[in-house]
Design the sequence.
């Protein structure tokens, strides 16, 4: 053994640094070199036996943990297995399993327009045009969501008319958004909570709860509701890209990631207006909670975000100005404050106990405190005010309560508050409460709840894992049952009405679904029920008149289609031209074509984009004066609406009838690019080419139409005629037999 220099104590046994438990190595640290410390160590070694290094390592690195410590460490052990790709696979299984009942669902409510009548999703030719249009062409809404239309465009290219693909896309977007939320929380929580590896478990628990929560049904099971999930997907993607750029050593990688973040932020803004809330949340976190970088570096991404918002404002100004629905708004500090308190109570109830789900609901009259009689009439809604006050008090307590999770709780409360204000009824919206509006706010609610749970004593934390699993399973089961309501429009409306969601819009929608299925007697009863509850519903009144017309009760329908009364509310009811159109149609049937034309022309200036009015006028002129008279009407509409496929096909047909064959062929070929899966434009092209005697070209064009619509008998009959014209009689006979077989099948189904 080597001797020590004179006057120095022997080298002490080195201590083990446990500050890096993941490294798998123990780092040895030298003791302090002060004389007093050497002297104290010398005396301690004289008074106690000298332990071996192995004993010290065992006693310092493997102490016997208490039961409470074991419970506390369980989430940490689980978090080590939360690999991002494993979480993504798990979320995909959970997401698609939870929403499986809705995957075969039909078009419901706004789906009928957005992936049906909507002219802007059937071809990439509209990729730029969607930035110049509102989401709905005939509505008072000013929704500007071009990215939503672009997503439908991709779906149409992939799936065509199959709604299964659209539903799968909805679930996939929501699943990826939940995964991005998990990744984002992994990066945000270190600045909010000193929870160690428990932060990973908390991020996973928040994300999976958000994934399966029933309040998101209207945003996931409803094809038209994907705007919320698209905005969240791109907003969180932008946030993560910027966070990743801070860790990149190379400047090229940083520039690329910052560019991706900027484009994703713009895509979020163009998905739905709620992305502005995401932008504000990013600013709040960056300025108030993220202290890991200098202020100047934190201001740079905020400046880039401001530039994207400015660009979004420019894009938002491209569509033509549209007046919103006029109405009398209640006072800001009176009625709207009461509605906001009730909405807070209702949203809080939905987050904790989502029992009655009805997509949208009413909170009762805003003037319930105007008099004692008004209060008594609306006392049924008073419990929502009490719940709202309780939620407000709870958030105040979470904000003020001290503890290591105080920052996390405050961030959660701030998140929820920022996302709640736009949907609180302080700003007028088309409904008082809508479940899918909680899509962003619910994250803040879950963050605040996670901060509250983390305040529990160590012994109680043993229950966190099993209770969390039970809660997630319960929420997923409720979501699964609600997803089954979205299989078809009638089922959705019935079950929503049974749960208490009997609004005027939903009752009218239920009646329209009955009419779509040809059940006009039931439709009449449904509209009369709507008018009993909501006697001022002009939409129900007009549609009841149309229903009575279809039942052959024309005289009874006339008061419902009173044009003078309808014109008096023209600024309050979208698509009110239906009343004028049906009245004009009845006049035309009675032989009073001049009166029918006068009525339609009276309504056209107020509805210049309505093809139904222009098309009806053209049909009447065609019947009374011939194709040349109708040609000017259709040509005028088609020039201003190049993207409208029916008007372009109508123009080609009229040009062909008027003898302008070359012009008709050019118009038909231009129409082909307006629908990448459509067949009508190719059929019209074949008819033009046949009129010009170009039978081989006509056969080729019609072949495309038949391939896209193989069960269209008109296409098959024309196809057989062309084959016969070309002398291919055996092939023509085969095609005719196929057409006859289809006709026989149709007769059997009708019986």
Sequence:
């Amino acid at each position: 053994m080597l001797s020590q220099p004179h006057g120095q104590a022997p080298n002490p046994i080195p201590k083990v640094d446990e500050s890096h438990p993941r490294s798998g190595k123990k780092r040895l640290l030298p003791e302090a070199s002060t004389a007093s410390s050497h002297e104290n160590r010398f005396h301690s070694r004289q008074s106690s036996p000298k332990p071996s290094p192995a004993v010290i390592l065992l006693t310092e690195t493997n102490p016997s943990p208490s039961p409470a410590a074991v419970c506390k460490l369980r989430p940490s052990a689980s978090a080590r297995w939360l690999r991002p790709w494993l979480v993504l696979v798990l979320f995909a299984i959970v997401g698609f399993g939870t929403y499986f009942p809705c995957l075969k669902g039909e078009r419901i409510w706004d789906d009928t327009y957005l992936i049906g009548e909507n002219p802007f999703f059937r071809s990439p030719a509209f990729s730029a045009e969607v930035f110049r249009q509102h989401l709905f062409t005939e509505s008072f809404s000013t929704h500007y969501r071009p990215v939503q239309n672009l997503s439908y465009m991709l779906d149409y290219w992939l799936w065509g008319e199959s709604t299964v693909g659209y539903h799968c896309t909805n679930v996939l977007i929501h699943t990826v958004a939940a995964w991005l939320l998990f990744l984002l929380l992994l990066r945000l929580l270190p600045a909010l909570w000193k929870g160690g590896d428990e932060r990973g478990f908390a991020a996973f628990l928040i994300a999976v709860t958000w994934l399966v929560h029933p309040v998101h049904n209207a945003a996931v099971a409803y094809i038209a509701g994907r705007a919320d999930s698209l905005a969240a997907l791109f907003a969180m993607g932008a946030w993560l890209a910027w966070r990743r750029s801070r860790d990149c050593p190379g400047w090229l990688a940083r520039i690329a990631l910052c560019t991706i973040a900027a484009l994703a932020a713009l895509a979020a803004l163009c998905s739905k207006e709620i992305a502005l809330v995401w932008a504000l949340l990013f600013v709040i976190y960056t300025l108030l909670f993220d202290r890991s970088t200098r202020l100047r570096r934190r201001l740079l991404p905020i400046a880039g975000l401001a530039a994207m918002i400015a660009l979004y404002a420019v894009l938002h100004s491209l569509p033509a100005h549209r007046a919103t629905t006029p109405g009398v708004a209640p006072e800001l500090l009176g009625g709207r404050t009461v509605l906001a308190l009730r909405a807070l109570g209702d949203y809080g109830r939905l987050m904790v106990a989502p029992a009655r789900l009805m997509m949208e609901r009413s909170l009762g009259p805003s003037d319930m405190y105007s008099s004692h009689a008004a209060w008594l009439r609306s006392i049924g809604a008073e419990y929502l005010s009490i719940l709202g006050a309780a939620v407000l008090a709870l958030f105040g307590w979470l904000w003020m309560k001290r503890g290591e999770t105080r920052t996390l709780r405050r961030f959660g409360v701030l998140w929820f508050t920022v996302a709640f204000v736009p949907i609180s009824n302080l700003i007028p919206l088309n409904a008082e409460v809508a479940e899918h509006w909680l899509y962003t706010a619910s994250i803040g609610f879950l963050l605040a709840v996670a901060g509250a749970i983390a305040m529990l004593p160590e012994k109680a934390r043993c229950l966190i894992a099993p209770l969390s699993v039970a809660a997630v399973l319960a929420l997923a089961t409720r979501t699964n049952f609600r997803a089954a309501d979205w299989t078809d429009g009638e089922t959705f409306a019935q079950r929503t009405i049974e749960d208490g969601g009997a609004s005027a819009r939903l009752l009218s929608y239920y009646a329209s679904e009955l009419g779509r299925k040809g059940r006009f007697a039931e439709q009449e009863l449904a509209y009369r029920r709507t008018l009993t509850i909501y006697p001022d519903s002009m939409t129900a009144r007009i549609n009841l008149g149309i229903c009575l017309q279809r039942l052959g009760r024309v005289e009874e329908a006339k008061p419902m289609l009173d044009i003078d009364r309808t014109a008096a509310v023209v600024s309050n009811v979208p698509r009110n031209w239906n009343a004028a159109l049906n009245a004009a149609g009845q006049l035309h049937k009675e032989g009073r074509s001049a009166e029918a034309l006068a009525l339609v022309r009276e309504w056209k200036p107020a509805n210049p984009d309505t093809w139904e009015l222009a098309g009806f006028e053209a049909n009447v002129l065609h019947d009374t004066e011939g194709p040349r008279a109708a040609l000017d009407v259709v040509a005028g509409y088609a020039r201003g609406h190049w993207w409208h496929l029916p008007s372009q096909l109508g123009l080609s047909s009229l040009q062909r009838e008027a003898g302008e064959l070359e012009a008709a062929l050019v118009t038909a070929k231009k129409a082909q690019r307006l629908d990448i899966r459509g067949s009508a434009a190719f059929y019209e092209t074949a008819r033009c080419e046949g009129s010009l005697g170009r039978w081989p070209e006509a056969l080729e064009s019609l072949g495309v139409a038949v391939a896209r619509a193989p069960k269209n008998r008109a296409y098959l009959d024309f196809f057989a005629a062309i084959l016969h014209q070309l002398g291919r009689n055996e092939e023509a006979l085969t095609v005719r037999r196929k057409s006859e077989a289809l006709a026989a099948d149709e007769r059997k189904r009708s019986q």
